[in-house]
Write a structure and sequence with these properties.
alpha+beta; two-stranded antiparallel ribbon
């Protein structure tokens, strides 16, 4: 997570974590630190996760 997004939009990032945790194939999401998300998934690859995060941020955070 970019530092500026994590700091300026902390509440939105918390919502991102809750939303991502509900996605099919995601077994856990933890915001370990302001800028660090730990995601557990047996089926998503890195590209799929990165695409989901990018779409969510562009749609919901508008940075």
């Amino acid at each position: 997570m970019r530092e500026d997004i994590a700091n300026e939009y902390s509440r939105e990032v918390d919502r991102l974590v809750k939303t991502l945790a509900k996605e099919d194939g995601i077994t856990g999401v933890v915001r370990e630190d302001r800028e660090v998300l730990l995601v557990a998934t047996p089926s998503w690859d890195t590209a799929q996760l990165q695409e989901w995060l990018t779409r969510y941020i562009e749609t919901n955070i508008h940075n």
